[in-house]
């Protein structure tokens, strides 16, 4: 058998760590595709791992595999450079019990979400969401009253789930792909970067959470608030909505249990740009750039690759989901793992 050690460090420190054989780890996990490190020869190709898995009928989902292939082109080689770690659905969680206690007192669209003056279901469009946030904020009189929405400066990147959804709905999902493909292999020129959907998404975010140069509809101090603390307070019932991912229920199960909110908090779709988009283009954003890399200067590269094969077997994939609540983007014999 083998013994192993797990080290945690900032991703900013990765390059210095893997650029030398002294103390170089055998495997790293990063939330990015590390194109510069690939170009500099610091990352070992793992195409042979993909081949070994394919022989057993195990494949990485096509959309994710494509991302990692494109990342390798920065190094000038058609190789696979990374194995996916986890694919994370990001969206908004809602405390349904608190939502149904919100009284509609402001003006704005409510669709079919308000009955007898109270919110009875989650908002389905941006306009309905804006109205709901305004109602919650208007109702917050004391410190103990729940805030409208939880996020923090540290977790602002998670707004990508909302930004990308609105972008794709506003100008079409093809424009979304044109933008991302341009950085590698598009011939559309700089027009790919001038997306009206991007402008619309950021303006919408600004309208929902800022007014007169100040943040609104939020919980706590956005600058000093730690995102883990924010989600912990959400689990305790301190806000109606919170920006989070599929990992929430598992990581905060103690808080959910002690507060009695286990059955009250649900994931919801990102409010759509309009009713038509909600019915016909109701996307769920999944981020899949969290990946595992084998450093080229590591002392145990083959052992690292063998480990990647091992944790990609069906039993390990199922165990990963059971333990973390997350998912890994694999298919076995063409079928997604349940």
End-to-end distance, in Å? Answer: 30 Å
- State the helix count: 15
Q: What's the rounded overall pLDDT mean?
A: 85
The share of residues in extended strands comes to 15-25%
Residue runs with pLDDT of under 50 for 5 or more positions: none
Q: How many strands?
A: 14
SSE arrangement:
Elements: H1 14-18, E1 28-31, H2 35-39, E2 43-44, H3 47-55, E3 58-60, H4 62-72, E4 83-95, H5 96-99, E5 114-115, E6 118-119, H6 126-139, E7 147-150, H7 160-171, H8 173-182, H9 196-209, E8 210-211, E9 214-215, H10 227-235, E10 239-245, H11 248-251, H12 253-259, E11 265-268, H13 275-280, E12 286-295, H14 301-310, H15 314-324, E13 330-332, E14 335-336
Parallel strand pairs: 7-10
Antiparallel strand pairs: 1-12, 2-12, 3-13, 4-10, 4-11, 4-12, 5-6, 8-9, 13-14
Helix pairs in contact: 3-14, 7-8, 7-9
Folded structure, characterized:
The chain is α+β, with helices and mostly antiparallel strands. Helix content is 39%, strand content 18%. It is built from 15 helices and 14 strands. The strands form four sheets. Strands 1, 2, 4, 7, 10, 11 and 12 form a seven-stranded mixed β-sheet that branches. α3 packs parallel to α14 and α7 packs across α9. The longest helix has 14 residues. The protein is globular and about 65 Å long. The two termini are 30 Å apart. The relative contact order is 0.20. The mean pLDDT is 85.
Question: What are the defining features of this structure?
Answer:
338 residues, alpha+beta, 7-stranded mixed beta sheet, 3-stranded antiparallel beta sheet, 14 strands, 39% helix, 18% strand, globular
